[in-house]
Amino acid sequence: MRMGMKKRGNVANTIIYIILSVLSVLWILPILWLVITSFRAELGAWTPYILPKEYTINNYTRLFTDTALFNYPRWFMNTLVVAVFSCIITTILNLMTSYTLSRLRFKARRAILNIGLILGMFPGFMAMIAVYFLLKAIGLTQSLVALVLVYSAGAGLSYYIAKGFFDTIPKSLDEAATIDGATQNMVFWKVILPLSKPIVIYTALMAFMAPWLDFIFVSVIMKDNYNNYTVALGLWQMLTRENIYQYFTQFCAGAVLISIPITLLFIKMQKYYVEGVTAGGVKG
Amino acid sequence: MQYIDYVTLPWYKKIVVRLTKAAKNLGHNFVALISKIGKFLISAFTGIVGGIKYFFSTFWKGDIRTKLSYLFMGSGCLLRGQIVRGLAFLALQMFYIVYMVSFGWGQLKLFPTLGTATKKEIWDEVNQIYLYEQGDNSMLILLFSVLTIAISIVMFYLYFRNIRMAYENQQLLKAGKKLNTIVDDAREFLDKKLHVTFLSLPTLGVIFFTALPLIFMILIAFTNYDKNHQPPGSLFTWVGLENFRNILSGRDVLATTFKGVLAWTIIWAIFATFSNYILGMLLALMINKKGIKFKSMWRTIFVITIAVPQFVTLLLMSRLLDDRGAVNILLGYLGMGPVKFLTDAAIARVTVIVVNIWVGVPYTMLITTGILMNIPAELYESARIDGAGPYKTFTKITLPYMLFVTTPYLITQFVSNINNFNVIFLLSGGNPLALDYYQAGKTDLLVTWLYKLTVNYQDYNLASTIGIMIFVISAAASLIVYNSSSSAKKEGMFQ
Fold first, then answer.
1. Model's pTM, two decimal places?
2. Structural domain boundaries of chain A?
């Protein structure tokens, strides 16, 4: 009987190993193909065969040398600058908002929560045309400042996850600190923030990654100012009908280059990601 | 009823319990909603009446300094020694007057018509050229009117605050108390009024970059701002509910498109949400099963696909699945004909759902892992003793438990799938195009259609109308489920 159970367990595990292996291959293949294509010597988006005939690192070097039309190094720096600034601003604003809505009690609190919920249900870029005209009115379009503004301005609305986290910290901590004479401001910086490392890292990570991933807002704001493009929009531009034949392999190389740091960052931080999402999104 | 009691019921009783609960909730929610609206209206009305009463009675009761603050904002503070506060109020009033006189009023005056003067061409006899006389720009008029109205509302609130503050100061002095100095104020904003300090910047950001633009776009839904009415060349104007009528009940191509796209959006949202949810959970279960080795390796493999930017993987997929793409070449090697993954309407719809599984399953795997670990082991134990196989254990224990715990997560997923722009836009671009649709394809969701209408075709009025419809759908979906789930009420339970 015991042997039978064990055997059955082994069979089940073998089946699971097979399924997991097949799935892993399915999940890894497209990414492998991306890497291989980034080393392909032949141009074009499609080849009538799967593995390249010749390999080269030219696709990578050309990203940095052939900058007349597509200035990859510059886009990279643009994105880095925007990401750093909007990360700092967004993290601070987001944490302040979520902390306030989670732990401070004031008259307008419920109303603000409801308004936030309602605003969040409109499709995000429905407003972008109007945002563009607003930026134009203050003479900020096509600049990196505008991008930082647009990315950080939404911080007040994405309080949901961090608020969920703050909700789980016992209220008695604040009370103890208040009795010791701390102001609410000190409670936030000295008591709550040190306890909130996972959510701080999660918020910063999300804010830092956003500019690398978004191309919709950038495309609306930057229009044809190639110099101020971010990496995502620049790479996206390489795949337009007139460029794709010439630049597809370079697109793959550029994509690999930005994927590496983001992947490393994400794998390193995935613990915080999971903690952040489960604290805020699932427990509710 | 505890979860454990519910599980032990026979299936028909479960259905009865579910249905009565849903009905109860629905009725309850509806009544709650109506009463909430009613309460809000009543409190708004009493608030206004009270405000008016306060406005006049304070004027009678106020001394000269308070009375003066009805005319010059801040006098009630300034003349009682609160210099900074008083000057700030005064400066705001000056700014508002200058703004209204020089700019705001001019815009507001044109708001009802959105401009009447079109751009004119005038032949200049002397220089032998056409001169252009700048006409009204409906778009800018609308934008700045919204801005002016918003500023005016804020100003009105501040004006009222100013009166209130003046009167409170008067009362305080009468009672022999000291007024707050600027230092006291600063201290208060770091303690009792910290919420004001912390929320002011984020609120400003949201107002300027989300709320005002949204109000502007909502108003656009009631105009004829389409590709034939583009300022500055021509004007657009108010058309009432015509756009909604066209989309909802017209018999022309617009209504057909809306119905088709809406149906597909809902089908998509349901399939995308639940396929990811269930498959992600199965994956997590497999990886975490006792006896499976290299857990972190398996997890990392799937996490890598999250970490590679979505626009990269999706654009790549669209090339891979192209009629001439690598997948079809591979199929060719195996002697199978090319499959029109993205060019045949029915196949394309399946393709986007399948690719979405590829994109989304690792997320669900990551997120559900922790919760799966929390399922009480006794449940599994007793199931095993009763001889339940893995399939039965999953459908009878794991799935119901997870559904029970993660309802809020599912709703957010559902709503974000209704708005899932990236997958559709980057993968299929909404194609294949449909001849009986207006500027949309067979895999277009409402959001991607909205995007096309704004960016490619400048039909802003239609786009805004669709945006409002998306809002209505998301709001309805969340309201129904969210209110009936307990998490809304449990807020603060841990505190």
1. 0.83
2. 2-58, 71-282
The answer to whether A273 faces chain B, any CB pair under 8 Å, is yes
Q: Cβ of A124 and B419 within 8 Å?
A: yes
Residue with tokens 């704001």: A221
pLDDT digits (tens, 9 = 90+) for B392-403: 888 888 888 887
- Check: CB of residue A28 under 8 Å from CB of residue B302: no
The label of the residue with tokens 């134990």 reads B381
Of A238, A220, A99, the C-alpha closest to A150 is A220
CB half-sphere exposure, B121, CA atoms < 13 A:
6
Strand, helix or coil for residue B308: coil
| Phi, psi torsion values for B131, nearest 5 degrees | -105, 145
pLDDT in tens, B8-20: 777 777 777 777 7
Distance from CA of B163 to the nearest CA of A (A): 20
Measured between CA atoms, the residue of chain A closest to residue B459 is: A129
Residue A70, both tokens: 């597509």
Contact assessment for residue A90 and residue A155, using Cβ atoms and an 8 Å cutoff: yes
Q: Residue type for B283, please?
A: L
CB–CB contact A24 B298 (8 Å): yes
For this complex, say whether ipTM is above 0.95. Answer: no
Please name which of A211, A207, A197, A187 lies closest in space to residue A276, comparing C-alpha atoms. Answer: A197
Q: Which CATH number fits domain A71-282: 3.30.413.10, 3.20.20.210, 3.40.50.300, 1.10.3720.10?
A: 1.10.3720.10
Q: Which residues of B333-367 are buried (b: 16+ CB within 10 A; e: fewer)?
A: eeeeeeebbbbeeeebbebbbebbbbbbbbbbbbb
Interface mutation target, options B225, B303, B311, chain A, most CBs of A under 10 Å:
B311
Within 8 A of A99 by CB-CB distance, chain B residues are 198
- With CB atoms and an 8 Å threshold, state whether B205 touches A154: yes
**Which residues of chain B make contact with A272, given a CB cutoff of 8 A?**
none
CA B420 to CA B171: how far, in whole Å? 57
